[in-house]
Amino acid sequence: MDKPYQKYTFKNGLRLVTVPMANTKAVTVLVLVGTGSKYETKEINGISHFLEHMFFKGTKKRPNTLAIAETLDRVGGQFNAFTDKEYTGYWSKVDGKHLDLAIDWVSDIFLNSRIDTKEIEKEKGVIIEEINMYLDEPINYIEWLWDKLLYGDQPQGWFIAGEKEIIRTIKRNDFIHYLKNHYSSHNTVIAIAGEINKADELKNKIKKHFGKINTSQPKSKIVAVEKQNNPKILVHEKKTDQAHLYIGFRAFDMFHKDKYVLDVLSAVLGGGMSSRMWISVREQRGLAYYVRSADVLYSDVGYYATQAGVDNNRVEDAIRVILNEYKLIKNKKINPKELRKAKDMIKGRTILSMESSSIQTKFYAEQELFENKILTLDKKFAKIEAVTAEDIQRVAKDIFKPEKLNLALIGPFKDKSKFEKLLKI
Fold first, then answer.
1. Sign (positive/negative) of CA torsion 143, 148, 149, 155?
2. Do 264 and 172 fall into the same domain?
3. How many domains does the chain fold into?
4. Where are the beta strands (DSSP E) in 135-279?
């Protein structure tokens, strides 16, 4: 069977992945670069995200935000960017007949942004207000507190958007230096998915538009250090009508042999409205409006956690129920029916999401960026199918241990001792 994608590596190390899709008129162009907040020092924490903003402030060809936005607005296109701990992405999605415009637009902001000093100073206010927004939203802020609890004062534990005090000090030279050291042909993958009529011609177009890309070797990320021997807790006192919590365990990285086992375990515990956590926490006891569980794996560390919004007076009950679900899946093998449901859920949701050209670009680009190889959906599904009930119990026993347990909590709580007692499982 032919591969559903084509991959090409240019002489300078830049990689291109093209994914023709038969049943769409749309096409997405994604430029994914292997840098993010884990590549920052404390003095410039937040610069990866800040730089993402600056790419929309003007180039020589498109001198301001209006010109940049209007280019794709004029043809009904969509565009945006995102910053994470280990990558940053810039994308545009258009009617397939405007593919050349999308490539030109993305390459222009990626390579030719002026990073103007006046715009930097104005955007500092925008970034600070974005940080304020996250701080005011416990459902989002709890995620940062969770990272802080697990990893402390190192890049893996810092807020991706940075700290307000640091944002105010960042200068133009900091951006130029960061670009030189972290944006390179060697850690950049371009993925194009959707209506592609002449995939072979795209190689020449990408070569032309990205000809000025920096070719020096990028600097490495700062590898996360983990050390934990006992359960840990972080309580952020805040007057709220609802407590927000993250509770879970350190796991392993994205290259671990059991990552597909963890995916299936995650589907059983927190994969939807029929999952164990949803039924036990929300439906049977009415303890939360939202409750979800997931595994998050980076290139060097990872975790599995459950997040919930809970009545302030019933937080202890919710914690007990969640911990009990961890205990149950560790002590008793799941039955064949539940295993089948979890696997079919993963496959079904993945297939539905892959109808979008945007998701396709991310699916292929992320694999190429981190692993320098690509597994097709069929191969990934084969790994999911290979997971057994014994595998799930084995991984649960390995991860769900007291010495790996952590709890982050936001709410009107002055004393954390009552929560510490709950973690002594």
1. positive
2. no
3. 2
4. 188-194, 232-237, 242-250
Say whether both 271 and 153 belong to one domain. no
Q: Which of 40, 52, 163, 403 is catalytic?
A: 52
> Which CATH number is 348's domain given?
3.30.830.10
| 43 and 92 belong to one structural domain | yes
Reported in sequence order, the residue ranges of 365-413 that DSSP labels E, i.e. its strands, are: 405-411
* Cα separation values, 238 from 134, 146, 148, 243, Å: 14, 16, 17, 9
In the residue annotation, 226 being an active-site residue is answered as no
Residue 362 and residue 319 share a domain: yes
Q: What is the pLDDT along the chain (425 residues), one digit of tens a residue?
A: 478 999 999 999 999 999 999 999 999 999 999 999 999 999 999 999 999 999 999 999 999 999 999 999 999 999 999 999 999 999 999 999 999 999 999 999 999 999 999 999 999 999 999 999 999 999 999 999 999 999 999 999 999 999 999 999 999 999 999 999 999 999 999 999 999 988 788 999 999 999 999 999 999 999 999 999 999 999 999 999 999 999 999 999 999 999 999 999 999 999 889 999 999 999 999 999 999 999 999 999 999 999 999 999 999 999 999 999 999 999 999 999 999 999 999 999 999 999 999 999 999 999 999 999 999 999 999 999 999 999 999 999 999 999 999 999 999 999 889 999 999 76
What domain range includes position 137? 6-209
- What are 401's two structure tokens? 């241990």
Contact 19, 364 (CB under 8 A): yes
